[in-house]
Design a protein that fits this description.
Blueprint: H1 11-16, E1 21-24, E2 36-40, E3 43-46, H2 48-67, E4 72-75, H3 82-91, E5 96-97, H4 109-127, H5 136-153, E6 165-168, H6 175-183, E7 187-192, E8 203-206, H7 212-229
Parallel strand pairs: 4-5, 4-6, 6-7, 7-8
Antiparallel strand pairs: 1-3, 2-3
Helix pairs in contact: 2-7, 3-7, 4-5
Family: Belongs to the universal ribosomal protein uS2 family.
Protein name: Small ribosomal subunit protein uS2
InterPro entries: Ribosomal_uS2, Ribosomal_uS2_bac/mit/plastid, Ribosomal_uS2_flav_dom_sf
């Protein structure tokens, strides 16, 4: 229990969700060897006892952040998981990135913030009818630009300062985000599969990062802790 928030992790539930399935033997990152329990059908099986221990540490850290009113940026750009990442982040009132990671989002935050402000102002102009005075052709161009801007900045449009931590649901795919966070001294909570360097994260969750069921399980636990700590 942290800050009166209960953390209930079950190895059986994790196994049912497929959290324990890693990648093929040939793709093992040497630093993940300590989290491997065995091999099945040429695929590494993650030690769920170790996952539970590491995940609990990550959840305790998340709980402490929420207790202090801090912000966690959710990052999950893999096609099959991005809708779940977005929904969870929104329900926790947290910013998110589920489309392509824009280089410089953290390391060049001031420039990105100007683009985000431009997007917010554009949205307001559209909503208040300020764009109605333009021709139909011009309004169509504005609409196209808004779609592009929304795609890039929707999840971070209320992010007025650098986040206190980033939660990356696939550390290998969004390695650029992890590297930027480390440069800025932002803590990284990362889901790490057997093919990934775990030292890129401050708090690691050794887990299957491909299966929707695995990511859903992890997100549900994270959501429980965040909403329980508020």
């Amino acid at each position: 229990m942290v800050n009166d928030v209960k953390i209930n992790l079950s190895v059986e539930e994790m196994a049912k969700a497929g959290v324990n399935f890693g990648h093929t033997v040939s793709r093992l990152h040497p630093k993940m060897k300590q989290y491997v329990a065995g091999i099945k059908n040429n695929v590494h099986i993650i030690d769920l006892e170790k996952t539970a221990k590491e995940f609990e540490n990550a959840l305790k850290f998340i709980s402490s952040l929420i207790d202090e009113g801090k912000t966690i940026l959710f990052v999950g750009t893999k096609i099959q998981i991005k809708e779940y990442v977005k929904t969870t982040a929104e329900s926790c009132n947290m910013p998110f990135v589920v489309e392509r990671w824009l280089g410089g989002t953290l390391t060049n935050f001031e420039t990105i913030s100007k683009r985000v402000k431009y997007f917010r102002d554009f949205e307001i102009k559209k909503a208040t009818g300020d764009l109605d005075k333009y021709t139909k052709k011009e309004r169509l161009l504005f609409d196209k630009e808004l779609v592009i801007l929304k795609n890039k900045f929707e999840g971070i449009k209320n992010l007025t300062k650098l986040p206190d931590a980033v939660l990356i649901l696939d550390l290998k795919k969004d390695i650029t985000c992890a590297k930027e966070a480390r440069k800025k001294g932002i803590k990284v909570i990362g889901v790490v599969d057997t093919n990934t360097d775990p030292t890129l994260a401050d708090y690691i969750v050794p887990a299957n990062d491909d299966a929707i069921s695995s990511i859903k399980y992890l997100l549900e636990k994270i959501q429980e802790v965040i909403q329980g700590a508020k």
